[in-house]
Amino acid sequence: MIQVREQIDHHTTVLALTGQFDHHTTVGIKALILGxxxxxxxxxxxxxxxxxxxxxxxxxELFLWHHQMKRQNLHISIVNPSFHIQExxxxxxxxxxxxxxxxxxxxVKHHEASSS
Length: 116
Prior knowledge:
Layout: E1 2-9, E2 12-21, H1 26-38, E3 43-54, H2 56-71, E4 75-79, H3 83-91, E5 100-101, H4 104-115
Parallel strand pairs: 2-3, 3-4, 4-5
Antiparallel strand pairs: 1-2
């Protein structure tokens, strides 16, 4: 099970996640991302500070979401993953596709600079 806390600020939605990121939990998160897009959001930040584990299915979902949302002009960023989650993202080359930042402020600043 995963807990999600949603925070909306202008054109950015932050999803603070706590728990395991796997096939049981990603369906609800995808629905929140799509809902954010429908509300005019341009940037979704996935706060991984509370993610305790990620499996290959979760990594695959991140890959798919990146490509699906990119076509819809919605950007996804990841912030604050733990060391072992960061390693998994790097090994799966997710970090080559989805920008990873140390903080939400850094992710917002990068998105605003690249959107201008």
